[in-house]
Design goal:
The protein is mainly β. It folds into three domains: 25-148, no CATH class; 156-249, Immunoglobulin-like; 254-327, Immunoglobulin-like. The protein has no helices and 28 strands. The strands form six sheets. The protein has a six-stranded mixed beta sheet with strand order 3-1-4-7-10-15, with no helix packed on it. Strands 16, 17, 18, 19, 20 and 21 form a six-stranded antiparallel beta sheet that branches. A hairpin with a 6-residue loop joins strand 22 (254-257) and strand 23 (264-269). Mean pLDDT is 83; it is low at 1-22.
Length: 330
């Protein structure tokens, strides 16, 4: 029989999160496991669900619980958090596929049909018995709870991560092999790798053990060499950095630097003397900024402009280019 493991990270579930279709949160009320009305939303849990038994709630196991559907070879792992109690009827079992995880949180309990019963009542994960009735009542005593079958799992298994320039936009695609407690993914960009600004975010799958594809699009990439940082937010609200990659993007032969801007910003490019150049704020209002053009190089004085995000709009030969700039006064 396996020894119980303690968690590396305390899992705190936020009940009001919305998850992608790959992971449904099932929250229990008092009742039998196999009764659809015991669960919210209604319906008995299936492979891949995240199952929550709140404090003060008792769920009875009157029949075997098979969350290792043999007819579905891609049956995803199930994650269960027990703050209340589970009680077994005589000889009943809970079975989960490989990667499944049951956390008996502090104060949570798992009860056999009778104390000191044999091995007919059990919790099996990946064909290994993690708890048997002969072990007696299992109580979550560690501040992080007691875990069955969880082991040390990476929050995100990142299979691939790529950057490509398409039609003056930068597309970032990545694929995850598995996800654990992932609420959202965030993509940020940076001119110099030290000051980051958010490009976009999108929901994660919560918990998943199947490959999932994601795609971000940066519609206003920096000109020249820049960097992209991919992170995720877990159920605790923590932001966890995953990957940083560089990218080169050139459009209309224009280059803006430095980013972020403190006082002076420069714009270099071909045929700027015949281009229309303007600076607008985040709602599209034009901002008056002192500027000087010498040959093919503009200098802008942002010393008296408030810190924030602005856009330099360049129109030349019926082509329009918008560059995002950040003003930060030190």
């Amino acid at each position: 029989m396996k020894n119980f493991t303690t968690p590396i990270v305390t899992i705190v579930l936020t009940f009001l999160l919305s998850f992608a279709a790959q992971a449904t949160v099932k929250t229990a009320t008092d009742g039998n496991w196999n009764a659809p009305g015991t669960w919210s939303p209604s319906g008995v849990p299936v492979c891949g669900d995240t199952i929550v038994i709140p404090a003060g709630v008792t769920v009875h196991i009157p029949a075997n619980v098979n969350l290792n559907d043999p007819s579905n070879p891609l049956c995803p792992a199930t994650f269960m958090q027990v703050y209340g109690a589970i009680t077994f009827a005589s000889g009943r079992k809970i079975r989960l596929v490989a990667g499944g995880c049951i956390t008996v949180e502090l104060g949570g309990e798992i009860h056999p049909s009778s104390v000191g019963g044999g091995s007919s009542e059990l919790i099996e994960i990946d064909k290994v018995d993690w708890w048997q009735a002969s072990d007696g009542v299992l109580v979550g005593t560690d501040p992080g709870g007691t875990q069955l079958g969880c082991g040390v799992l990476l929050p995100v298994e990142l299979i691939s991560y790529s950057i490509e320039t398409i039609d003056n936009q930068v597309q970032i695609e990545f694929t995850t092999g598995s996800e654990r407690d992932v609420s959202e993914y965030i993509l940020e960009s940076s001119r110099d790798g030290s000051f980051w600004q958010e490009v976009a975010r999108q929901p994660g799958a919560g918990n998943s053990s199947t490959p999932l594809d994601y795609k971000f699009t940066d519609e206003n990439p920096f000109n020249g060499v820049s960097y992209y940082r991919l992170s995720f937010i877990n159920f605790n609200g923590d932001i966890v950095e995953m990957e940083i990659m560089s990218n080169e993007f050139y459009s209309l032969n224009y280059l803006i630097y430095p980013i972020p801007v403190n006082k002076t910003m420069f714009l270099e490019g071909d045929d700027l003397a015949s281009a229309q150049v303007s600076v607008v704020n985040s709602v599209g209002e034009q901002i008056e900024v002192d500027r000087t053009l010498v040959y093919d190089k503009y200098s802008f004085n942002f010393e008296h402009i408030k810190s924030g995000v602005y856009f330099v709009v360049i129109e030349n030969n019926n082509v329009k280019k918008t560059e995002r700039v950040v003003v930060v006064h030190k």
